[in-house]
Amino acid sequence: MTNIDAVLQTYFVDLDINSVVESESKIDKHNSIRPFYKGLEESCFQDNFLKHNSMYGTDVISAVHTMAKDYWLKSNESNNVHIFNIPLVAAENFLLWQKDEPVCKYNDYLSWNDISSIVGEDLFTTAFLASKAARHNQKIDSFAWKPHITSDNTELSTVLNQGLSELHFHLYGSSLCFYLNWLALMNATAEEAKIRQSLFDISNEMYGIVEKARASRLYLFKVIQNQDTDKDRRKLYQILKSDKASINMSSRELCAGISAAKFDAFNYKGKYVDYALRNPITSQDIKRYYNVPLIGERKLLFELFKRIYSESESASKIFLPFHVYLLAKNKFSRFLLQNDGIKGFSHFSEIERRKSTFIPERSIYEKLFTFMAIHCTACNQPITNLEMRISPKNCHQNQAQAIKEFGEIINSEVFRLNQPNLLESKVKAGYILHFIKRPDNKTTKSSSQDCTIYCRNQNLREKIAKQAASLAWLIRTNNRSVKGGISAEKYPIIGIDAASSEFGCRPEVFAPIFRWLKQIPRRTTLDYLYPKRDLQLGRTFHVGEDYYSIVDGLRAIDECITFLNFGNGDRLGHAVALGITPYGYYKTRNFRIVIPRQDLLDNAVWLIKKMDHYSIPDKGGIKLRLKNIFREQYLAIYNKKISDSIDDYYDAWLLRGDKPSPNMTSNEYIWKKNIRNNADPATNIARQNEAALEIYWKYHYDPQVRNKGNQITEQALENSDIDIIASIQEKMREEIAKKKIAIETNPTSNLRITDLDRYSKHPVLRFYNRDLVPNSTSYQINVSINTDDQGVFATSLEKEYTLLACALEKKRNEDGLPTYSAKDIYKWLDNIRKCAEMNSFIDNS
After folding, report:
1. Which DSSP helix (H) or strand (E) runs through 523?
2. Over the stretch 192-251, which tens digit does the pLDDT of each residue have?
3. Which has more confidence, 485 or 636?
4. I need a labelling partner for 536 at 20 to 30 A (CA). Which of 622, 624, 818, 831 fits?
5. Which residues are bridge partners to 429 per DSSP?
6. Which of 330, 352, 374 is where one domain is finished?
7. Is residue 676 part of a domain?
């Protein structure tokens, strides 16, 4: 983050709204306090600056404060000093206006991503355009540009315009989550008060912040419509100074004002999206129907900035409410966008769960949520293949109905504004049903008559078995049309996945149904027009993304390949553990890991066996240390010695890919020979090992073993350990390349969730480096670049490619020279683009 970025965050994110209101509202009476919008006093600036820049010394902060006061709060074309010049100064460094679209200068794209992820792109784009309109009389009447702007790099655009395949796209997480939630809140009337009330579930303080934003926005809208009165201004200040109770009393009148503002607003057959979205809309913007809901907010910000930069008489009336509105909006964005620097999948999951919290059921926002996820993605970019991930239902009727409703919304003529459906002409799409992982939290069935002992993850196993059965029935009976999928719907079911947190839910849980569903054919041609042609469901699996240690992540990847019988054509989602640098990872943890005993035991045995399998030399006596870990943890968990043989324990590990009976007794070692049990030769041999069978039974059904295995312990690592881990990583990459298993990489998602900190260090460079590294001897894994939950990370597929390209062009070697040439980078990206098309589960024949 640059200094101007930090100043922007200070003024437009970190400032306390109540302090801003208290300071600025006193100007009217006493004119004795410097208002916040004129720039903070140094002591106040320092307090707020330190909230996110604790590494700065006070002398440096003083220098930054002086820099901001002397340069960034001033305009080059006016003597007016205020904070609204800061985004303009930044925007003029970043942006260009080309073909009615704002674009970012390519060399500044990484910096643009850093700050726009914190305060939003619209703050800069609207300020930039407002200055052109106010100071240069440039006509600006088109506002339906892309949600995420691209760069001015024409050579890169030529590569991307040949067609992109999005293979890791969670439909619900890929809409404009923040934008649509914000519009729903800003436009909520009395009938929709429930969605505002849901703010209490997150934060009482946030409820007050949002209500003040609603009041400020309505007042600002009246100002640009020349409909504001002194009474409106007094009411606004009353709300801005109010506590929660007083705000509740003002809420009804505020809702009435919002309802009145919707009169004459643009609407979809009587359904209003935003009172700031006014008629008429230009014909050019109507052609970009998929971006129309964005226009109202952008035009509102544009008009406000325009009044400020033109120094109109109304400018003084909007300083305070505009500042409050922008502060509130950026504070609220932290609830719906992962842009706060906190790592880990659990934090991501918490944010991801809120993605539609404030969207009223059966509202126009709910339908737009689905519509814009698809159309904003596919129509704003050169997408040719789009794999849409949705969760499966428990019965085939519900699944069929859900897909039917998706199809109706995605192809809605109402939202298309009588424009041609661009999806039909340019995009091939299909659904991937992703089962949801859940941690194991049950060991016995609580009943006075029944003390049945459950196997691990029994509840989830039963749930996904039902979902798999309904999916199989649906595909066998109804999936009849070419790119038509279920019945007469337009998009087929093309694959399966398992997603969400990996902790407490290993690949073994999904292994039986993944092997079984692989045998279910899906038809891909209209059988009455073409010869019948059956294809298998594609299979992908989220794995190696979040883990207790790299070894834990590598073992999960190996379990996915071994237990699910992954091979040619299958894909791994993320697989960060396979490419992250071990030394850097463990260094950040002071070369110590905290991990459950069961996982430490499993990892130790797995490492020993992998060293043998790959013929990796035993450096520094690591095998002896691993054997000592095995004996210590094995005795602690399993209490008495069943067998102290590592081979027996490894055989028991191999059996985990089988389907356990819900209530298997310790003497029940009858393995049914069906597809739900693993047909792997080594596993067949393991089933004959009685010691392994007994360990397997205790692993699943002994409550004491499970409880002791969940106990947390700490383990230190030595340098020789890390060398071995790096060697196993490399061998596994080689093996995956030989098996022709592909990897779906998600750069921004991985940087926000995992230990990665730079795009130039992303594992995709270790998976696939052809054309980047001359005479590379590395095995090349087929990879794709994707977005994951693009709505949560505020990204797009074009943006992901651009960020990688820019990061690699800026990378320098030890001599300070470019590590890669631009030509090689674009060739590398083009090959990945082609790999993604080849890896797609969509039938492109």
Report:
1. strand 521-523
2. 666 656 665 556 778 889 989 999 999 999 999 999 999 999 999 988 988 765 666 567
3. 636
4. 831
5. 386
6. 352
7. yes
| Cα 58 to Cα 39: distance, rounded to the nearest angstrom | 18
Token match 């009337």: residue?
A: 189
- Name residue 716's beta-bridge partners: 592
Among 695, 608, 701, CA closest to 644: 695
Could you give the CA distance from residue 788 to residue 785 in angstroms, rounded to a whole number? 10
Q: Alpha helix (H) ranges present in 479-549?
A: 511-517
In this prediction the pTM is: 0.94
- Inter-residue contact 393 to 402 (CB < 8 Å): yes
State the Cα–Cα distance between residues 27 and 19, nearest whole angstrom. Answer: 13
Question: Who's near 318: CB < 8 A, 6+ residues apart?
Answer: 220, 223, 304, 307, 308
- Distance separating alpha carbons of residues 34 and 489, to the nearest angstrom: 62
Tokens matching residue 531: 């010869």
Residue 460 CA to residue 394 CA, distance in Å, equals 12
Return d(Cα 321, Cα 215) in angstroms, integer.
9
Do residues 379 and 422 touch, judged by C-beta distance below 8 A? Answer: yes
In a domain, 582, yes or no: no
DSSP-derived letter for residue 394 is S
Q: Quick check: is 393 in a domain?
A: no
Q: What is the pLDDT of residue 449?
A: 42
**Predicted local confidence at residue 26, as pLDDT:** 66
pLDDT above 50: residue 567: yes
Give the structural domain span for 312: 3-170+176-352
Q: Where are the alpha helices (DSSP H) in 241-344?
A: 244-261, 283-287, 295-309, 315-336
Evaluate whether 674 touches 726 at the Cβ level (below 8 Å): no
**Residue 295 Cα to chain centre, angstroms:** 24
First vs last Cα of the chain: how many Å apart? 46
Q: Which amino acid is at 449?
A: Q
Nearest-angstrom CA–CA distance, 384 and 429 = 8
Length of the chain as a residue count? 845
The answer to whether 459 and 442 have CB atoms below 8 angstroms apart is: yes
Domain count, the chain: 2
**In degrees rounded to 5, what are phi and psi of residue 837?**
-65, -40
User: Alpha helix locations (H) across 672-796?
Assistant: 681-686, 690-701, 703-709, 719-739, 747-753, 764-767, 790-793
For residue 78, list its beta bridge partners: 75
Mind listing the pLDDT tens digit for each residue in 679-714?
788 888 998 898 998 899 999 999 999 999 999 999
DSSP state of 217: H
Question: Per DSSP, what are the bridge partners of residue 538?
Answer: 495
The angle formed by the CA atoms of residues 312, 318 and 324, to the nearest 5 degrees, is 150
- CA 81/CA 96 separation, integer angstroms: 24
* pLDDT tens profile 749-792: 999 999 899 999 999 999 999 989 888 878 899 999 999 999 99
CA–CA distance, 819 with 799 (Å, rounded to integer): 22
Query: Within a 10 A sphere around the Cβ of 81, how many other Cβ atoms?
Result: 14
Residue 688 maps to a domain: yes
The two structure tokens encoding residue 678:
């693993």
- CA 741 – CA 743 distance, rounded (Å): 7
Domain end (from 352, 369, 403) = 352
150/99 Cα distance (integer angstroms):
13
Query: What pLDDT is attached to residue 135?
Result: 87
